[in-house]
Amino acid sequence: MRTFTSLLCSVLWLAVSAHGQSVTWQLDTSHVQVEGTSTIHDWTVQVPDVHGTLTMNGDQISNVELTFEVNTMVSGRGATMDDKTKKALKGDTDPQIIFKSTQITSKSSNQLIASGDLTIGGVTHKMDITCQSDGNGHFSAIVPLTFSQFEIEPPSALFGSIVCGEEMTIHLELQFTH
Fold first, then answer.
1. What kind and span of H or E run contains 48?
2. pTM score of the predicted model
3. How wide is the angle at C-alpha 99 spanned by C-alphas 72 and 32, nearest 5°?
4. CB 54 within 8 A of CB 63
5. Which candidate in 67, 100, 151, 155 could, as Cys together with 51 as Cys, close a disulfide (CB 3.0–4.6 Å)?
6. Residue 8, pLDDT above cutoff 60
7. C-alpha to C-alpha distance for 96 and 123, rounded to whole angstroms
């Protein structure tokens, strides 16, 4: 009887211990694009190389980290525009845009706020990003930013006759798996 009781206690202890364990999910697929305006036309840049992790403690998200590779961004408007984008975002000295959460707050069953630090071009800015979630590792968000928040000169062309607007928006569709 003592052996059974000891075994039962051990199993219960393991179950309680495992419940408090954190589990890391990896970014599996993503669709990330940056949109903005210019004096001539709106523009869109695709970000094909994105890496990320999401840490779960029980059923709560405790941490999110995302890395966007600047030098893989593609505008669809040719190499010259791609190079101007990479140069403006300081891809030669700071080749990654990085978001690291400092706090995750659940607003509802399908909405959360990821507060954290967003670093672009070596400049870090505190952000609150509202995300929609399906509860199965899929997250979407729309993040409005300005170039000046990150001390970035908006890209220009043709001796300054074409200039990007100050505002840009990042659209995120992220699927994490564990």
1. none
2. 0.83
3. 45
4. yes
5. 67
6. no
7. 11
